[in-house]
Every structure is written in structure tokens, then in C-alpha cells.
Amino acid sequence: MKNLILLRGLPGSGKSTAAKLLGANGAGYAHHEADMYFIQDGVYNFDASKLRNAHEWCRNQTEKSMIDDKISVVIVSNTFTQEWEMEAYTNLAKQYGYRVTSFIVENRHAGVNVHGVPEDKLQMMKDRFEFKL
Known about the structure:
The protein contains 4 helices and 6 strands; from the N terminus they run E-H-E-E-E-H-E-H-E-H. The protein has about 130 residues and is an alpha/beta fold. Strand 3 (about 40) and strand 4 (about 45) form a beta hairpin. It is globular, with a radius of gyration of 14 Å. The protein starts with a strand and ends in a 5-residue tail after the last helix.
């Protein structure tokens, strides 16, 4: 069975760390996130004007991994604060025969927002966070 794992949560909640704990660096696994688009020569340099490009890149990388017969688990860790933001990934999962599981990663470790997202923006993200039970 091929699996797509969507890790959701606010910046600094530990999504990237959770992806590593789930084995995203092992054989048969792939891990993608929009933030990876902003890493050049090991340095994270966020540019809000390129956010749309970053998410498109992340979707494209995810699809490439799903096409690869050697990969059976694809993990995507983005904020996904609203249901519609996951739709492109769930559509890819249907297209390529992946089962979808989503996890909400909570910041229970007093994690620092390493991405420098202002507090007012974090509050906006918290206020619009949607989930289904």
C-alpha cells in the first residue's frame, strides 16, 4: 500500500521534525514542503512574493515522488490551515493510488518559530485553522 502523509500545523510546531521521525529520510520515503523551495546553498531565504511558486514546486515534487516506483511513502509538511489547501495533494493521491492520512502537529514543546512569521500572522493562521474529526 502506498501512503501519502500530510503533516499540518503552524510554523514552529515541529512538522519537519515529525517528518524525519516518520522516516522521511529512509529508503522508500520522500519528504517535501514548500519551505524547501527557499533553501539555497543550505540557507533559508523566505520571499513571500514567491510563495505561489513554492507551493507549485512542492506539488510537482510530490507528484514526481508518487510516480517513482521505489517510493511508497510520501510525506508533505505544510501549514495546511484550511481544507482546500490539501486538495491538490488528495487529488494526486487518488490519481496515483495513495492512501491519505493527515496529522496535525501541535507545538507542545514551546518550539520557536524559526521562519520569523510575525505574531499577528500566526494568530490569523490559528483563527482560520480547519479540521475534520
